[in-house]
Amino acid sequence: MATTAELFEEPFVADEYIERLVWRTPGGGSRGGPEAFDPKRLLEEFVNHIQELQIMDERIQRKVEKLEQQCQKEAKEFARKVQDLQKSNQVAFQHFQELDEHISYVATKVCHLGDQLEGVNTPRQRAVEAQKLMKYFNEFLDGELKSDVFTNSEKIKEAADIIQKLHLIAQELPFDRFSEVKSKIASKYHDLECQLIQEFTGAQRRGEISRMREVAAVLLHFKGYSHCVDVYIKQCQEGAYLRNDIFEDAAILCQRVNKQVGDIFSNPETVLAKLIQNVFEIKLQSFVKDQLEECRKSDAEQYLKSLYDLYTRTTNLSSKLMEFNLGTDKQTFLSKLIKSIFISYLENYIEVETGYLKSRSAMILQRYYDSKNHQKRSIGTGGIQDLKERIRQRTNLPLGPSIDTHGETFLSQEVVVNLLQETKQAFERCHRLSDPSDLPRNAFRIFTILVEFLCIEHIDYALETGLAGIPSSDSRNANLYFLDVVHQANTIFHLFDKQFNDHLMPLISSSPKLSECLQKKKEIIEQMEMKLDTGIDRTLNCMIGQMKHILAAEQKKTDFKPEDENNVLIQYTNACVKVCAYVRKQVEKIKNSMDGKNVDTVLMELGVRFHRLIYEHLQQYSYSCMGGMLAICDVAEYRKCAKDFKIPLVLQLFDTLHALCNLLVVNPDNLKQVCSGEQLANLDKNILHSFVQLRADYRSARLARHFS
């Protein structure tokens, strides 16, 4: 059995158990062993081992049953002990309840006895205290203070308590009989009060916080307590303002006092609030007045900058003080202090702001025009000017003499940046210094000044001057500067629009002034776009006029009907070369002067007019066969020039024109076939006929017969 037990190992694996049994059995090896394999012997060993295992199992089972019986017996014993303990616990709990009731009964008796003793002792103590007060009162009545409490300086605290009570009693006595003693008590009251304040002052200078706390507690019941607080506040500020920044000094002072005031006074929030009020109403108000009064009437720019800076620093100081305990409504308290300092300056702030902004803007503009040696001309307003504007919009005719601007646009980004910078600063000051209820209205006033000087006095004036400087369409060698005006006006208006969104919108976004500002901006945009459109249209007319002059001067009738048909050496005419060069230059100028869809719109309009000009120009000549080929070459060059427009409609027009020019050279027998081609099939027959009529051989019966 011992051998069998040795074969068990943890963890138990049946296969390994059989292997170990086989190897321990003589004759159980399969090969290479000292004995040959003997299956009978191995079977016999297995049978014996199984019997041993059965015997072992029976023995273990008996042992398990014995242990289970023992466990059940011990469980019953344990349950019995638990029941006994529960019974004992119930008995103990009942005893505890009885003891608790008894203790409560005794405590009630003791409290009742204490109340009785207190009821007896309190009147006795009052009587003793009253007796002492009568004794001290008699000393004042006799005129000689003998008690140690009045003569010993170390007992000033006890003397203060007594004299404070005597002072209250004396106030109830009739004046005619006790006037003398009342004056003596009042005198002693005043003397002790002064001594306590002096003691407090000395302790503060020595930095004795505990002594300051004791004296302040005594003075709390005296009338001079507020004077004690005043002395504390005054001494706190001694040597506190040594830096150049009074606001930083004030913040450091309040932080320092906030840390110690709770250790001295029983009402620290009231004392700290009084200190802050003293700082604002005396130190800061005096400092602000000194800074602003000297430049209030003489230098508006410096006055506004100083006012903005001082108000900002004061509100920043107020924000730092908000972290302190100043009572229930510290926000209102600090706001009132700030208002008391700046109210006289904020009442008329917007008048000063708008007055300065107008004068400053006018000076910036005048300085610019002076640098150009330009005297601004009057644009004019009223009925006559409105009538001229309507006529110009409908007829596109120049009204009045043309002005030679010598290429000057009278627009300056430097001027615009200066105006926008001044207005940006005005908006910032307006946001900070305006009352919330007045903010949208004040911001609108600043916006109207910006519109007046930037949009009307500068941009609109430049547009009017630019319009007046556009020559008539029949002028020769005209210099066209209006596109430069367009380019600069667009750039400037983008800057204006950015300031509108970045600085004005946040100030008016939630007020009725928003719609008013948007409407005013819309009117300004429409007015400027109208003048820009008029100027661009007249400029395009001038461009077409210049092309007409080039064609009239350079194009000869012999170009398309040469005397010697066999001796034509040019690829295209000189007029075509010059016109294309001119057009390419103007296209590049338009692309550089505009942006977005405006470029395509203007180029399309120029392209259409350019096509109409060439179309009408070609209609003026008669073409021989060689001349027709040259005309086709010219149109091909014009079409190549039209590709620079990058406008599909313009290119399509010139493609069609090129196809029409083929009618000038095509064999008469093929005319109908060409006319029914893809590019010419949709054209009016009269247009086709008009081009065929330009052929030099049109009158021949053969050609007329083929085309009819």
TrEMBL record:
Source organism superkingdom: Eukaryota
Source organism per UniProt: Tursiops truncatus (Atlantic bottle-nosed dolphin)
Annotated keywords: Coiled coil, Exocytosis, Transport
Entry keyword annotation includes Coiled coil: yes
GO terms for cellular component: exocyst
Pfam families xrefs: Sec10_HB (PF07393), Sec10_N (PF20667)
Coiled coil: 50-88
Name of this chain's protein: Exocyst complex component 5
Encoding gene, per UniProt annotation: EXOC5
Residue span, Exocyst complex component Sec10 N-terminal domain: 39-147
InterPro entries xrefs: Sec10-like, Sec10_HB, Sec10_N
Annotated Exocyst complex component Sec10-like alpha-helical bundle domain residues: 158-707
UniProt record, GO biological process: exocytosis; Golgi to plasma membrane transport
Family: Belongs to the SEC10 family.
